[in-house]
Design a protein that fits this description.
Shape: globular
Strand order of the largest sheet: 1-4-3-2
Strand content: 15-25%
Helix content: 40-55%
Largest sheet: 4 strands, parallel
Distance between the termini: 29 Å
Radius of gyration: 14 Å
């Protein structure tokens, strides 16, 4: 199985074109801005907005995983999670790497869950903006 993450180095225009092409192929694209995800709260706000999480989302890793295993409120044939400026994720958190590791586990779990159901799930980390 392919890794659920891939790094890109694209301009904003190229990134938006890639996301638009994915949407035309039936993907739901969730776009999370690293610049607004320097704290755990900021990250959860970004993800909640990007994937339109319900009010039951409780701002925790467990809740994030539960929401990603559901997503019944979205329409898609594949999922694409784009994170811009990932180097800024959790930058203001003391336990920065613990959150990065939790995020990696969550993305891998979501990818595995959806791929078992024959739904492609990918996460693109865009390193250029």
């Amino acid at each position: 199985m392919d890794a659920p993450f891939r790094a890109t180095y694209q301009t904003k225009r190229m990134l938006y074109e890639m996301m638009l092409c994915a949407e035309h192929r039936g993907a739901y694209v969730g776009y999370v801005r690293g610049e607004f995800s320097r704290t755990l709260t900021g990250f959860f706000q970004e993800v909640s907005s990007a994937f339109r999480f319900p009010y039951t989302f409780s701002w925790s890793w467990e809740s994030l995983d539960a929401c990603f295993r559901d997503l019944e409120w979205l329409s898609f044939s594949q999922l694409l999670w784009v994170i811009s400026q990932p180097e800024k994720l959790f930058a203001q958190e003391e336990d920065h790497m613990a959150h990065v590791n939790a995020l990696q586990r969550s993305i891998a779990a979501a990818a595995s869950f959806w791929r078992e159901r024959q739904v492609p799930f990918d996460c693109v980390l865009n390193l250029f903006e």
